[in-house]
């Protein structure tokens, strides 16, 4: 389902883009797609996180889409527009293509398989979560649209998310809203410590329960050179959380 009408604000610009095998930052990091700006911080529109799966049993939450995800989402949306698809279909196709695209998705699936998450949800492989039509998964970001600092992907630092009033308020309000829209008590997987800070607040406010948060999951980006070490350090505790969550759902 579409979770807001923001797509309508940017649809005409995306429709007017020339068809290319790949877009450049000069094509997309433009005023027509700018959502907000504060000093070196800029947020730009991408359509994939405007599509949501409210019946999900698993919710994977990243920090913000990066440039690669933005480019794939808009290029996919452009192609879907040429096929005269509806706004919901356009945003859904963009989501299927762009969410954690590239090596990040491969790394994510590998770690989920290491935890045997798929077995708790009756799947042969965690890769099936990302297949079109899977009813189990909702993917999103604390910052729904791509954020850049000095034109580079925002990493949650410089400025630190929890210390930047604009970004932190945006992330908190958005996540509160997305959680409220879920039909079930979902297993929530925050990717990285920056993302966890918002869920710690939501937990302290009793808007989520301790049992549904898979704490300690490292960000799957290839730029996270400590990913495997972090995973090994928290693997046993994450396995325990998964077992407990599964038992509570029975």
Explain briefly what this protein structure is:
The chain is of the alpha/beta class. The protein contains nine helices and seven strands, in the order ααβββααααβββαβαα.
Describe the protein:
The protein is α/β, with parallel strands linked by helices and 250 residues long. It has a domain at 52-66 and 98-140 and 156-249. It has helices spanning 6-16, 25-28, 67-82, 87-98, 103-114, 117-120, 165-181, 193-204, 227-249, and strands at 34-38, 41-44, 58-62, 137-141, 147-149, 152-153, 187-190. The strands form two sheets. Strands 1-2-5-6 form a four-stranded antiparallel beta sheet, with no helix packed on it. The chain has a three-stranded parallel beta sheet with strand order 4-3-7. Helix 3 (67-82) packs antiparallel against helix 4 (87-98). The model has no long low-confidence stretch (mean pLDDT 94). It comes from Paenibacillus glycanilyticus. This is Uracil-DNA glycosylase-like domain-containing protein.
């Amino acid at each position: 389902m579409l979770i807001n009408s923001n797509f309508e604000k940017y649809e005409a610009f995306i429709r007017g883009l020339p068809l290319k095998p790949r877009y450049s930052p000069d094509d997309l990091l433009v005023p027509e797609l700018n959502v907000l700006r504060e000093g070196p911080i800029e947020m730009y529109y991408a359509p994939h996180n405007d599509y949501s799966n409210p019946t999900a049993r698993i919710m994977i939450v990243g920090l913000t889409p990066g440039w690669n995800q933005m480019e794939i989402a808009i290029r996919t949306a452009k192609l879907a527009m040429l096929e005269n698809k509806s706004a919901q279909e356009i945003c859904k196709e963009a989501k299927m293509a762009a969410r954690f695209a590239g090596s990040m998705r491969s790394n994510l699936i590998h770690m989920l398989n290491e935890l045997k998450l798929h077995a708790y949800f009756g799947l042969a492989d965690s890769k099936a979560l990302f297949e079109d039509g899977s009813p189990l998964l909702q993917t999103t970001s604390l910052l729904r649209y791509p954020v850049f600092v000095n034109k580079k992907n925002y990493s949650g630092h410089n400025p630190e998310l929890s210390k930047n009033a604009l970004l932190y308020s945006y992330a908190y309000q958005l996540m509160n809203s997305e959680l409220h829209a879920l039909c079930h008590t979902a297993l929530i997987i925050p990717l990285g410590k920056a993302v966890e800070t918002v869920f710690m607040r939501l937990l302290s406010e009793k808007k989520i329960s301790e049992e549904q948060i898979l704490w300690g999951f490292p960000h799957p980006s290839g730029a996270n050179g400590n990913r495997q070490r972090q995973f090994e350090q928290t693997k046993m505790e994450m396995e325990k959380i998964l077992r407990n969550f599964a038992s509570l759902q029975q």
